[in-house]
Amino acid sequence: QSMLTQPPSVAGAPGQRVTISCTGGSSNIGAGYGVHWYQQLPGTAPKLLIYGNSRRPSGVPDRFSASKSGTSASLAITGLQPEDEADYYCQSYDSALIDMIFGGGTKLTVL
Amino acid sequence: QVQLQESGPGLVKPSQTLSLTCTVSGGSVSSGRFYWHWIRQHPGKGLEWLGYIYNSGTTYYNPSLKSRVSISVDTSKSQFSLKLSSMTAADTAVYYCAKGEDYGGDSGLDVWGQGTLVTVSS
Questions:
Q1: pLDDT tens profile B95-108
Q2: Does pLDDT of A1 surpass 80?
Q3: DSSP assignment of A28-89, as one string?
Q4: For a surface tag, which of A67, B23, B80, B104 has the fewest beta carbons within 10 Å of its beta carbon?
Q5: Cβ B47–A105 below 8 Å, yes or no?
Q6: B57 touches chain A (CB under 8 A)
């Protein structure tokens, strides 16, 4: 079981806004570690979508945004497009031994 | 721009040791700037971090696999490698190599290889 909890699935219609939560605890997100988000399109490697809680790498549309508060983080996607259909993972670190940890992933379906 | 490419056997027998290589292009594997990681993904499942190597020699492994994992660098070939011993069917997964600019900080894994499927079967 992941130390970062994500909903298994979310869905939205084209043009809508969806959010994906990532819930951790005091030893990981709550300890101040950065949260990063990855998008994995079907059959491909994960791609860095958000780093440092809320920053977008060059080339990532501003439809994608993220935030962090306390022991949780969230990813928001506005203006949903069919090509956004993918699995999304949050990632942080756990302070017990500073292990890299991932959320279990959320499958986004664009209806 | 750094690019990564995994290579290795697609099929491994139970109890054998898996050896995978990640070839780095567009950057130096011996650079003290980057952390070089291995991550795997079981079929239909999430991502599991295996470990990293930094500055050509500093390593850190996932505690749950620590006794079985080894990561090393071959600077002459611009490669870093993963060895995972005592393979079982539970190790069947897609194995990815990835690059990070820090560890425990504000940089994520910004470059990934395409991944290589490793199946454990007799």
A1: 999 999 998 888 99
A2: no
A3: TGGGT---EEEEE-TTS--EEEEBTTTBPPTT--TTEEEEEETTEEEEEE-S--GGG-EEEE
A4: A67
A5: yes
A6: no
Q: Which residues of B touch A9 (CB under 8 A)?
A: none
| Interchain CB distance below 8 Å, A44 and B96 | no
Q: What is the 3-state secondary structure (H, E, C) of B14-63?
A: CCCCEEEEEEEECCCCCCCCCEEEEEEECCCCCEEEEEEEECCCEEEECC
pLDDT confidence of residue B28: 87
Q: Is the pLDDT of residue A94 over 80?
A: yes
Residues of B in contact with A52 (CB under 8 A): 106-108
CB-CB neighbors (< 8 A) of A93 in chain B: 103-104
